[in-house]
Q: What sequence folds into this?
């Protein structure tokens, strides 16, 4: 019995050490290789990227302070923990964009197959607007680079994400394991219909592509007391806006218009779109 207890303790300590391991160039290389992606930056470039992170974190804090009065400390901690350079990768071209992480002027980056990694200020804004809590179960529509769901996963209990582009979704699904993010769950599918197999629904739904109208299945899967953040507008046109939908304890849905945005479109058979080739 004592041997079994010791074995469990050793295993727990191994996991604890792995979770708290320093994120350095060696760890970056190991994680990239473990996810099946190329490492095409040097240790010097990695150091330069790391040096920019503190400035980017301060920019995020200032930005959120200006919009919400005070930045969510848990969000700032998650931003500092999450290695954005690891998620900056063009899967269609099979090339890393890590050397450009934490750019002074936050901007979106193409990750291939028509998808994009949104700018880090916009992602932080949508995250705080959703107001995630550690006991929440969240759903993201549009996995893309994986950064947004990874950021949320550091703040919530369970994080689910759906990607409609099969080659992108299959490759991005491999990147969470090497980081030890066991509470991230992904699948390939039409995000308009959500993830009804997840029992109990979701406390938060965040849509990272512009819908032409609000998908009713997503509202159905939103828990009472839940919140959905979604950009709505025509594909590739200005005039898109973020909307916040909340469901009260009686199941009644309320909506509020937020800031103007510009996102790639939400593709779905419900909108008459031809889905990406399998």
A:
């Amino acid at each position: 019995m004592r041997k079994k207890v010791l074995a469990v303790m050793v295993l727990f300590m191994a996991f604890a050490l792995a979770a708290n391991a320093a994120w350095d160039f060696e760890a970056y290389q190991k994680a990239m290789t473990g996810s099946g992606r190329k490492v095409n930056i040097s240790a010097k470039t990695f150091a330069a990227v790391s040096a920019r992170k503190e400035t980017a974190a301060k920019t995020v804090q200032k930005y959120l302070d200006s919009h919400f009065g005070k930045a969510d400390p848990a969000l700032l901690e998650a931003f500092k923990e999450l290695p954005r350079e690891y998620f900056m990768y063009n899967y269609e071209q099979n090339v890393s964009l890590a050397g450009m992480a934490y750019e002074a002027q936050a901007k979106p980056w193409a990750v291939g197959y028509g998808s994009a990694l949104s700018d880090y200020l916009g992602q932080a804004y949508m995250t705080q607007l959703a107001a995630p809590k550690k006991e929440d179960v969240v759903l993201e529509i549009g996995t893309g680079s994986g950064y947004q769901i990874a950021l949320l996963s550091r703040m919530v209990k369970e994080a689910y994400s759906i990607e409609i582009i099969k080659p992108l979704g299959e490759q991005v699904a491999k990147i969470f394991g090497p980081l030890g993010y066991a509470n991230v769950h992904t699948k390939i599918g039409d995000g308009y219909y959500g993830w009804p197999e997840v029992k109990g629904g979701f406390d938060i739904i965040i849509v990272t592509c512009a819908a032409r109208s609000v998908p009713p299945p997503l509202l159905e899967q939103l828990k009472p007391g839940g919140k959905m953040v979604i950009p709505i507008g025509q594909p590739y046109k200005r005039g898109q806006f973020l909307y916040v939908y909340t469901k009260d304890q009686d199941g009644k849905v309320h909506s509020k218009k937020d800031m103007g945005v510009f996102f790639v479109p939400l593709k779905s058979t419900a909108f008459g779109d031809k889905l990406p080739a399998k």
Notes: Residues 43-68 form the longest helix (26 residues). The first strand starts at residue 89 and ends at 90. The CA atoms of residues 21 and 255 lie 43 Å apart.
